[in-house]
Task: inverse folding
């Protein structure tokens, strides 16, 4: 599966797809036309991708829903049975189940791929504002407006525990959910104080409560997901209520310390969603937001995760013609890699730019540089190729570039 970023503008019939490339700006794919769910709006549109990238589940505020099964294009969807009353506020997908949360029906869960409705007790729930499956898929976390405001279901038999003591009433439909680094706890962020509550997944016992305003969820147009973990699982990013509208939370800290994020210049505005590139080498997060002081107006920005510097080239490659984005999300599978060693005319290891072009399309799909001391390089691509690999001569060298044609990448396991 290609590594792609999908952007669904609010109210538009179709979205946009970008190939994400190692060492290069995103590449718009005009030949791929992702279909926007009917009735998707900025505030309540939701597309949830299963962790194994086998399918995606979408819902809209008007009560429609469906499944995408071709995540390379999002070009069509099927509509499984969906009977709700009220407004859908959120949706979520694991490898085995998908669910939606709403204002009246509260919670509906289905098995995948059978679409069979699950028998899940909703007694005592209020309007559901946040949903999340635990990373291992063993639990479904439900944040709702009925005291004690949090319920945790076991996906094995749909038994549940409630929060004790109670959490915070989400009340404004803006909820961020994350999980502790050890996977034993769930973090729930809300707009009202205490802004952060942490609960044990097995027992529902509250183990931490925090009033730091850096935890306060955005009160305007935070599009799901409002939170995202870094690739190492040690940091959680959340959309917050005050500039620069994003906070980092240290998941390895006993007090879940908030880490300041430098304000980008020019400033961005509130709202929007987060998508973190799962490849730690890319060190990237994509954020949709209001234009703020950006000129010309910008509604998507690519940031460095480690420094929070704006990737001007990467951000500039993303089309910025839409101001309201209902969904921003990406898909990626296990990568392939091309490796080797570059040597100069005297057979010494050297640093040179190495590029990989798709043999099928001619598109430049990855760029890296060999190590000056060893000459070794690694290029990551997201299909089996073949690729034409270019080794660029250094400025001033009286040499032509070297090409290796029809190079077959090797599959990377455990990535």
Result:
């Amino acid at each position: 599966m290609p590594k792609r970023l999908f952007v669904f503008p609010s109210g538009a019939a179709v979205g946009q797809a970008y190939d994400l490339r190692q060492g290069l700006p995103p590449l718009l794919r005009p030949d791929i036309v992702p279909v926007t769910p009917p009735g998707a709006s900025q505030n309540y549109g939701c597309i949830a991708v299963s962790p194994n990238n086998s399918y995606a589940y979408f819902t809209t505020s008007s009560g429609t829903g469906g499944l995408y099964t071709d995540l390379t294009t999002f070009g069509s969807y099927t509509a499984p049975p969906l009977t709700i009353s009220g407004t859908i506020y959120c949706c979520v997908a694991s490898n085995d189940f998908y669910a939606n949360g709403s204002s009246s029906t509260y919670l509906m869960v289905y098995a995948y791929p059978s679409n069979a409705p699950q028998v899940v007790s909703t007694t005592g729930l209020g309007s559901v504002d946040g949903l999340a499956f635990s990373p291992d898929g063993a639990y479904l976390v439900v944040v709702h407006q009925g005291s004690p405001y949090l319920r945790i279901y076991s996906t094995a038999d749909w038994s549940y525990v409630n929060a004790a003591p109670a959490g915070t009433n989400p009340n404004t439909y803006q909820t961020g959910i994350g999980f502790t680094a050890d996977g034993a706890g769930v973090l729930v962020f809300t707009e009202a104080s205490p802004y952060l509550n942490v609960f044990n997944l097995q027992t529902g016992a509250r183990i931490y409560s925090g009033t730091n305003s850096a935890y306060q969820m955005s009160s305007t147009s935070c599009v799901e997901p409002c939170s995202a973990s870094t690739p190492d699982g040690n940091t959680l990013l959340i959309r917050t209520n005050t500039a620069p509208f994003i906070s980092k939370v240290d998941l390895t800290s006993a007090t879940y310390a908030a880490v300041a994020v430098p304000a980008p210049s020019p400033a961005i505005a509130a709202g929007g969603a987060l998508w973190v590139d799962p490849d730690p080498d890319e060190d990237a997060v994509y954020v949709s937001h209001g234009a703020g002081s950006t000129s010309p107006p910008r509604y998507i920005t690519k940031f460095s995760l480690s420094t929070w510097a704006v990737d001007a080239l990467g951000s500039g490659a993303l089309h910025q013609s839409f101001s309201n984005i209902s969904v921003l999300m990406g898909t990626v599978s296990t990568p392939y890699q091309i490796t080797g060693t570059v040597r100069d005319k005297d057979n010494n290891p050297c640093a040179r730019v190495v590029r990989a072009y798709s043999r099928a399309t001619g598109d430049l799909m990855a760029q890296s540089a060999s190590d000056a001391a060893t000459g070794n390089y690694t290029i990551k691509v997201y299909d089996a190729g073949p690729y034409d690999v270019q080794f660029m001569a250094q400025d001033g060298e009286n040499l032509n570039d070297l090409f290796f044609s029809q190079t077959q990448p090797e599959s990377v396991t455990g990535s």
